[in-house]
Amino acid sequence: MSFGGLYSIEKLDDFNYASWAIQMRSVLVHSELWPIVCGKCIKNEEATAAESAAFDMQDEKALASIMLSIKPSQLNHVKHSKTSLEAWNSLREVYQPSGPARKITLFKKLLYLRKSEGNNMKEHISEFYAVLEQLNEIGVIVPEEMLTIILLSSLNKSFENFVVAIETRDTLPSLSALKIKLLEEGERRLENSKDKEIEDSEQALVARAGVTKNDSYANKNKSSDKKYANIKCFKCGKRGHIASKCNDVKKLCSNNASLSVLASATLNNLNRECWIIDSGATSHLCCERDLFSKYKECEEKIMLADAHCIEAIGVGEVNLKCGNLMVKLQNVLHVPSLKNNFLSVSKFLHYGLKVYFEKMQVIIKTEKGEVLMRAKRQDGLYVFRYSTEKCCGTSVINNNEVHWHNRFGHLNFESLAEMANKNIVYGLKFKSQQQQNKCVTCARSKICVKKFPKVSENRAEKMCEVIHTDVCGPINIKSLGGSRYFVTFIDDMSRYICVYFMKSRDEVFSKFKMFKEIVEKQNNCKIKVLRSDNGREYLSREFGNYLKENGIVRQLTVPHTPQQNGVAERANRTLVEMARSMLIHSESGECFWAEAVSTAAYLRNRAITKALTSSTPFEKWTGKKPCVSHFKVFGSLAIALDKTHKRKFQPKGKKLIMVGYSETSKAYRLYDPVAKTVIVSRDVIFVEDKYPGTFGTNNISDLVTFEAENQAEERTETEKVDNEDPEANEESNEQSDRVGRGRPKFVRTGKRGRPRKKRNMVNLLKAADVEIPNTVIEAMNSKYSHQWEDSMQKEYSALIKNDTWSLVDLPPGQKAIGCKWVFNVKQTADGGVERFKSRLVAKGCSQQYGVNFSETYSPVVRYATIRMLLALAAEYKLFLHQMDVSTAYLNSDLHDIVYMKQPEHFIDKQFPKRVLQLKKALYGLKQSGREWNSKLESVLIKMNFKSCPSEPCVYTRNEKGKYNIIAVYVDDLIIASSNMKDLSDIKAKIADAFDVVDGGSLKYFLGMEIEREGDVGSINICQSQYILNMLSQYGMENCKSVATPLEAGFQTYCDKEDCERVNVTQYQSLIGALMYLAISTRPDILHSVSKLAQRNSDPHVEHKIGAKRIMRYLKGTVDYKLHYQKTGKPIQGYVDADWGGDTNDRKSYTGCAFVAAGSVFSWESKKQNLVSLSSTEAEYVALSTAAKEAVYIKKLINETGFN
């Protein structure tokens, strides 16, 4: 905006308030209006009429200046302001709030500010002072000495010497003095880096091809010399020229012969199969003709660093084997006169690869971050050694010392030798200690400070007498299951380690209860002492009361004395070092740390320790000597038998990666980096000296929950009954988790060995990555055709087995309705694929009322009722489980006569023209839902459940003070019970009646992620993964977050004809996605989404911007959860009205919320149907709405028996 042609400023928008405020203040000062705007000059009530008019004129002028300097989208903030002071303050409150949250955010930003390598010093200091200025503007004054310390702390490691020099002074410099020194140091380093670039370019081993010696000494005119004014010659040390133009070059020419000899001698130390990474080479150069796969003759001259020319006689392609990848080098020049081969850095960069130079190696990676090759530094050169070995799936590795060291997770050589000599384990073939202290991976992973002097301790004499415990974390990178911590429990007598993974420290108590339940039942002993540090996770009142109730003595260390908890501290350190060693050795991604820790615990329990020199923890714990002959190197190449249907000449083996050992069967856990799945298999051939490298990604958002963490939690130490047989290759006969008629019933009984809920296959594929086909042809042509065909076959077989139809001739006068296959994938809580689903659906749209259907209504449970049930479960400590009835509709008989065409892909070859007379209520029929609901209700009534009149899909059975409740949403069931035995009995009876999938503890229901502390603790519900998927779908995963869903006073009405319209379908889809979230778990966005939904039929661009603002708000609040816990408080209701909230039709808005167990479970926001003449009337209308909901809640509470 221009002011009188003298100056102009950028108009205010959502992002430039800081610069706008400074410039606008200057404009107002220049116009002598600032005293009025800032409030220093106020209107005098005793002033004359002329003076008042003059003041009002100046105020209006200032207000107009502000209004004209902001964009139209910001006018909502100031359009009701009557004075310039009000307008200025309104804008400052919006864009520069001064509340505690703003102060904390800015101070944290200042505190965590760090200088990056690519950022120069001027930019860094400017960013520092910008944040400091924002703090000053909201009244936060930071002491200068503290600012000096913060600025020093913000420097990266390359400034370590500079920081040390400042710290060694008696007094710290002032902030301004430090700023000057940093700017000078930054300029000096920038200058040095330019000099180094010149030196490096002149000292490159291979110069640019085709350049002649005379060219190097051309252009000696004065204009050419000016550009070297600030450059230092690396030969004579003087500034003003480069080495090639140095006047002292003749003095150095006599040394050229010795220099060439030295370089030649250095190269002679390498064989002709080595490749040197050269940053000066413009082409790949090869001296060996035999290495070319394609070749043609050519003539090209190449100039070396000493201006000597050599000749290339050919060009072609060379294949280099890097790990398990074959890299094709194109346009490689054949130069027989060279003694070595050279790889061009510039060529790598040209093809999109990334080259990282480190002190002792060069790493070349793909665009996705996968390591392609590593070149080690040798005599000043970076050398990549080319391997001519072929990858052979049947090669056998000898049981030598190095492999056993790697298989045992880099256990020290002394312990391995001792275990072999004393025959402590079976299957270990280890002969000597010659490799001792020669493992580079161990040196990198385990280097530490010197040990503390050993303190004598009293060892426990019985198992479970003393349990040591400690928490490790937070780990910087989340595991694939989202964990950031792990807790260990170590038995003092046997030193047996149990590991549990956690997302937060608050889970320690539930993990201890799980550990106690397992070990006491498995080992027939009682825990007597729990020894831990003073972490808050161990000091909760609930934890303390639990220990007292079970007669367990708590022993705590003295604060800041971790040595007193040495057993647990050392165990955690050992596990971390072993895991780190395995990850480094196999070049695996850090996000696999939990899998490595789980494997480390498995290995450590089967190795000797300093506390047990004659046996292993496993032997002390189980009474059996472990067998280790099945141990393989973590991260090594595994060729597994592919049991999927293959054609005659397709490979039978599949390349996978070894990531651990199955706890429930004698088999290995293998990761498939292509399909992103983990399988359990025994039919494996290992190539232990081959490491496929990084497991594809370190990005957790690209992966879904991994199984090892759940496996660690669900261990029941089955080693007590498993045969530790050297032939640990027996196929696991793990059964399906389905139960019901014709299948084994997996319900909790008194027998040991409860089957696991999960299948062997753990799918790491994202559901969003699977394209859902619309037709059978699309399914059969997709890359998941085998999965879709298998799911179709399972569905069809289930229909046949269930006697769903009869194949008959179509009677005259009758019409057969069509059918189609519907495809989908069932997701896990974190967005992964649990299984592929195909469903045969009847085309019920062609049914006729009164002919082949009559009644259709079928109820489902309300979302508010589900949340109320969760709140009651947290308040009354109820167990919560879930079940899914498979092909639910097919369990109900069809009472109408319906004919249907045969399904595509399964047409009877003998009777292709016949039709199907349906006996069961197939999906898609109009009456199927009603028939299924009637069938389920009849089964539950036989189990003595009764339906609640106010909520027909909630069934209760309360007897003798025990609560049993079932909530039904079509074929998904939530079962709540105050008694675990009753719950198991209910699940068993349902399984007798239907074919069901037992989901175990409630974790994911109707798109809601449900987390619970233990079995009967507090409950969190959220939809974080749904939000992330939605942001990704609309391309907003990297958007900036905002503090509120919509701006205050946002209105949806717009009658401008020239307003830009947006696509109605896309807008409705976006609003629908947000509305689903708002009615499920996010009451904070319901009012905003309801407002925008009013424009579903005619959306303008500003409405779409509003919807996107809600998504920006969700980006910043993705982890918000509803938290229910025991409070002892009654249900409370809140209601309010926004009188005249819609400025167009003057109708008001109603908002109400009901709270139980510490969080909201029922909420509503809607526009009132009438125009209220006063705020009182609007509030009475809102009270009426809330009263209806309150009556319903009270009635339902009474019907369920919670009075």
UniProtKB/TrEMBL annotation:
<keyword id="KW-0863">Zinc-finger</keyword>
<keyword id="KW-0645">Protease</keyword>
<keyword id="KW-0862">Zinc</keyword>
<dbReference type="Pfam" id="PF00665">
    <property type="entry name" value="rve"/>
</dbReference>
<dbReference type="Pfam" id="PF07727">
    <property type="entry name" value="RVT_2"/>
</dbReference>
<dbReference type="GO" id="GO:0006508">
    <property type="term" value="P:proteolysis"/>
</dbReference>
<feature type="domain" description="CCHC-type">
    <location>
        <begin position="232"/>
        <end position="246"/>
    </location>
</feature>
<dbReference type="InterPro" id="IPR036875">
    <property type="entry name" value="Znf_CCHC_sf"/>
</dbReference>
<dbReference type="GO" id="GO:0003676">
    <property type="term" value="F:nucleic acid binding"/>
</dbReference>
<dbReference type="InterPro" id="IPR013103">
    <property type="entry name" value="RVT_2"/>
</dbReference>
<dbReference type="Pfam" id="PF13976">
    <property type="entry name" value="gag_pre-integrs"/>
</dbReference>
<dbReference type="InterPro" id="IPR036397">
    <property type="entry name" value="RNaseH_sf"/>
</dbReference>
<dbReference type="GO" id="GO:0004190">
    <property type="term" value="F:aspartic-type endopeptidase activity"/>
</dbReference>
<dbReference type="InterPro" id="IPR043502">
    <property type="entry name" value="DNA/RNA_pol_sf"/>
</dbReference>
<dbReference type="InterPro" id="IPR001584">
    <property type="entry name" value="Integrase_cat-core"/>
</dbReference>
<dbReference type="GO" id="GO:0015074">
    <property type="term" value="P:DNA integration"/>
</dbReference>
<feature type="region of interest" description="Disordered">
    <location>
        <begin position="710"/>
        <end position="755"/>
    </location>
</feature>
<dbReference type="GO" id="GO:0042575">
    <property type="term" value="C:DNA polymerase complex"/>
</dbReference>
<dbReference type="InterPro" id="IPR039537">
    <property type="entry name" value="Retrotran_Ty1/copia-like"/>
</dbReference>
<feature type="compositionally biased region" description="Acidic residues">
    <location>
        <begin position="724"/>
        <end position="734"/>
    </location>
</feature>
<feature type="compositionally biased region" description="Basic residues">
    <location>
        <begin position="741"/>
        <end position="755"/>
    </location>
</feature>
<dbReference type="InterPro" id="IPR001878">
    <property type="entry name" value="Znf_CCHC"/>
</dbReference>
<feature type="domain" description="Integrase catalytic">
    <location>
        <begin position="449"/>
        <end position="625"/>
    </location>
</feature>
<keyword id="KW-0479">Metal-binding</keyword>
<keyword id="KW-0378">Hydrolase</keyword>
<dbReference type="Pfam" id="PF25597">
    <property type="entry name" value="SH3_retrovirus"/>
</dbReference>
<dbReference type="Pfam" id="PF22936">
    <property type="entry name" value="Pol_BBD"/>
</dbReference>
<feature type="compositionally biased region" description="Basic and acidic residues">
    <location>
        <begin position="712"/>
        <end position="723"/>
    </location>
</feature>
<dbReference type="InterPro" id="IPR054722">
    <property type="entry name" value="PolX-like_BBD"/>
</dbReference>
<keyword id="KW-0064">Aspartyl protease</keyword>
<dbReference type="InterPro" id="IPR057670">
    <property type="entry name" value="SH3_retrovirus"/>
</dbReference>
<dbReference type="InterPro" id="IPR025724">
    <property type="entry name" value="GAG-pre-integrase_dom"/>
</dbReference>
<dbReference type="Pfam" id="PF14223">
    <property type="entry name" value="Retrotran_gag_2"/>
</dbReference>
<dbReference type="GO" id="GO:0008270">
    <property type="term" value="F:zinc ion binding"/>
</dbReference>
<dbReference type="InterPro" id="IPR012337">
    <property type="entry name" value="RNaseH-like_sf"/>
</dbReference>
<dbReference type="Pfam" id="PF00098">
    <property type="entry name" value="zf-CCHC"/>
</dbReference>
<protein>
    <submittedName>
        <fullName>Retrovirus-related Pol polyprotein from transposon TNT 1-94</fullName>
    </submittedName>
</protein>
<dbReference type="GO" id="GO:0071897">
    <property type="term" value="P:DNA biosynthetic process"/>
</dbReference>
